[in-house]
Design brief:
By secondary structure, the protein is of the alpha/beta class. The protein has 13 helices and 15 strands. It has helices spanning 16-27, 43-54, 67-81, 96-108, 124-132, 152-158, 181-194, 233-236, 251-261, 270-282, 284-307, 333-344, 373-391, and strands spanning 30-31, 91-94, 114-119, 135-140, 142-144, 147-149, 163-169, 197-201, 227-232, 245-248, 311-313, 320-324, 346-347, 349-350, 364-368. Strands 2-10-9-8-7-3-4 form a seven-stranded mixed beta sheet, sandwiched between helices. Helix 1 runs parallel beside helix 12, helix 2 runs antiparallel to helix 10 and helix 4 (96-108) packs parallel to helix 5 (124-132). The longest helix is centred in the C-terminal third of the chain and has 24 residues, at 284-307. The two termini are 39 Å apart.
């Protein structure tokens, strides 16, 4: 029998996260691959979800989202960034940021339209673009003086007559870079000049380090009216399993996204929405403490990886450290990632799977540091003991 899967999705198959997590479970390796914390979010926020369940918030909430969360998101955008969004029409609650991205691309792009994304990119971007029938136009991020950035000329050259949108992820997964104001200015100038829609994935907005500022693209001149701004509770409050996200933008864009979203999941779970509203209003000090703890964990892991022989690119945000494996004698990250559980008892993610042109990222491997200190220390010890053996392999 022929493969029943539609042709445009056959290139995707099982995600690398599923493969590597299964490998970790099968081998008992420490999983520094998938980006989920091994500690819970703020206790009062968790209790708010439990209370909501006990009090009967167990049926369909309104399609746009629980009013309390939409109001809390509106207050949060205003307090943090000076952006005014009407909770009744300019904010939509989604089943995580992944659904928000997919619904936005499906709503805004016709078949044959082109969408620019910076590679390496979160793997759902390419899948959402393929589902919509649009065409991905990648612009590569490369290390320059220790951080990943793009060439403005290459970005400009990627825009053609069919370009409809640009996907902007900052803080950026998987490189850990945080776009500077100058980089965002270059993106904004192009969007205004060529009448492009910006879809911004800002789920790591509160997880930046070393005093680095996260600047939403929508705050730049002329960008609020052409930006679909996406974030979620998962990374901010360490509740990735809740899958509660939101879209902010001009009413016509949000209405378009909701038109698609209602036929994907219809609505998002009410208890998590009520708890996320509590988090945005009452748990931002917890978030600040979490950010400081993550910064220390980042330093702990980067030091250990460097000592083990990896070339480490120090991230300014997110959960992730990007490493170059060539000093260890490897050039293929996928091969190393599949062998690492047996060689060292550690799981990582090969970055090349996040590229439209995998050869550009074949020498990078991503590690997550959103784990307990003892887990990071054990992983570093295992990698360090095997560094000599790895360097002799090819």
């Amino acid at each position: 029998m022929n493969d029943p899967l539609v042709a445009r999705m056959r290139a995707f198959g099982t995600t690398i996260f599923t493969e590597m997590s299964a490998l970790a479970a099968r081998t008992g390796a420490i999983n520094l691959g998938q980006g989920f914390p091994d500690t819970d979010g703020p206790a009062a926020m968790l209790e708010r979800a439990a209370t909501a369940i006990r009090e009967g918030a167990n049926q369909y909430p309104p399609g746009p989202g629980v009013p309390d969360l939409r109001q809390a998101v509106s207050e949060h955008r205003k307090a943090c960034y000076g952006l005014d969004y009407d909770p009744d029409g300019e904010i939509l609650v989604t089943v995580g940021a992944t659904e928000a991205i997919a619904a936005s691309v499906l709503a805004l792009c016709e078949p044959g339209d082109e969408v620019i994304a910076f590679e390496p990119y979160y793997d759902s971007y390419a899948a959402a673009i393929a589902l919509s029938g649009a065409v991905l136009r990648p612009v590569t991020l490369r290390p320059v003086e220790g951080r990943f950035t793009f060439d403005p000329a290459e970005l400009r050259a990627a825009v053609g007559p069919r370009t409809r949108a640009i996907l902007v992820n900052s803080p950026h997964n998987p490189t850990g870079t945080v776009f500077t104001r100058a980089e965002l200015d270059a993106i904004a100038e192009l969007c205004r000049e060529r009448d492009l829609v910006a879809v911004t994935d800002e789920v790591y907005e509160h997880l930046t380090f070393d005093g680095v500022e996260h600047v939403p693209l929508a705050t730049l001149p002329g960008m609020r009216e052409r930006t679909v701004m996406i974030s979620s509770a998962g990374k901010t409050f360490s509740v990735t399993g809740w899958k509660t996200g939101w879209v902010c933008g001009p009413a016509p864009f949000v209405r378009a996204v909701q038109t698609v979203k209602q036929f994907l999941t219809f609505t998002a779970s009410a208890p998590w929405q009520l708890a996320a509203a509590h988090g945005l209003r009452h748990e931002m000090e917890w978030v600040s403490r979490q950010r400081a703890e993550l910064e220390a964990k980042r330093d702990r892991l980067t030091a250990g990886l460097a000592a083990a022989g990896f070339e480490v690119h120090r991230p300014a945000g997110t959960y992730f450290v990007q490493t170059d494996i060539r000093p260890l004698g490897f050039t293929d990250g996928l091969t190393l990632a599949r062998e690492l559980p047996e060689l060292a008892g550690v799981v990582a993610i090969p970055t090349q799977v996040f590229y439209a042109r995998p050869e550009r990222g074949s020498h990078f491997v991503r590690f997550a540091f959103c784990k307990k200190e003892a887990v990071i220390d054990e992983a570093v010890a295992r990698l360090g003991r095997l560094a000599g053996g790895l360097s002799r392999r090819s």
